[in-house]
Amino acid sequence: MAWELIEVPGNLNPSLQDSTVDVLATKIDPKLANTLIRQLSQVCPLENLRHVKRVRRRTECGGKSELSIILCVSTGSEPCSIQFSEDLQKIVDTYQLSPFTAKVAKYCATSKEEWEEQCKLWPTSYHPAHDLDIVRGFQEEELPSIFNCMKTAIQLSKAGNAAIIIDPSSMQIIAKATDQTHKHDTPEEGNTFSEANADVTCSLNASTDNDCNLSLPGSFLSKRNSLNMEISCINPWGWMRKRTCEQKPLPCDGCFAWHPLRHAPMVAIENAAERDRTMFPSSTSITKPDSNGNPENCCDNEPAKRLKTDTKDNEQSSSESFRGDLSETSRPYLCTGFDIYLVWEPCTMCAMALVHHRFKRVFYAFPNPVTGALGGVYRLHGERSLNHHYNVFRVSVPEAYSNGLKYCSKEC
Question: What is the CATH architecture assignment of 20-106?
């Protein structure tokens, strides 16, 4: 089996009947169309249905056109007179309109086929994306580096999940981490940020053949063949399992080295934040009260962050800032524009953390059949109510990588 990139859609093309909303409409004389459109736009604008056209034209059997116009969104099974506002009722009475209930598409169409289905109910607007890369979320020339980054994540995974945050503009590793939800026999590696880690880059010279010339050491595959894998996102209660006396705790510098919520994505985000504090120190001093209530000056290590954009100029300046002069103004806003590579599909907690930190793309290799939030069980990235959305891709890896990595329901 060859390396392959598979997009995980945010929804499974739900039927149109499951994504409609009721409106109150009425047939009108074509001569009144312009007048009613102006009045209704002022009295009852369709704020949440901007993709729906206000007027529908249908041709009757005799060739005569029939116009219908939307008055307002229906609020329930109450009579129309109760649903209308005072101004809207005045329009209905003035022109002696006879309202009826109709269904319209709740969301704008994402494809031509979906738009054609919507127009069977009521006409809507459709604006297709002209840039294919925007639709797909990646470019063909990125595939070798994407596969190489996933290989790096798999190699990092020793016990549980692994996460690597990448800046796609420079292919630089921003942070990396593994699960820290319980104590392990061997210390975890790569969980603490250092400037040396940040200088490591994914090779862009990977072979473009089917297997990308990526191989794993035999010792790694033998470890992955164990059925005692503990993936935090799959088995969130695994940290409660009794441990043997021989197990040694993770290295700790005056803080907890493990915690039930320290899943790999959460730790990677924490390491990225620590990287920001290290590489973008603030010289601004603020006044805070001490324990006795007296003011004292202290250094504010959280300067205002600049929102990262996708313009070419900003991408260039961002890339230069990582390699050269690291000024405070070049500090990224959270993880905006970054990619994250996960060996296992994240749970809902981790997937929502990726939303809050404004990731651009999420890549994972193996689905999570128990608590997967990005295709395995739920599709959180398709939730329209969220204020940020990222593209999700599953990297189908060769058989040599997947041996021993498949989820074992008996153990978890």
Answer: 2-Layer Sandwich (3.30)
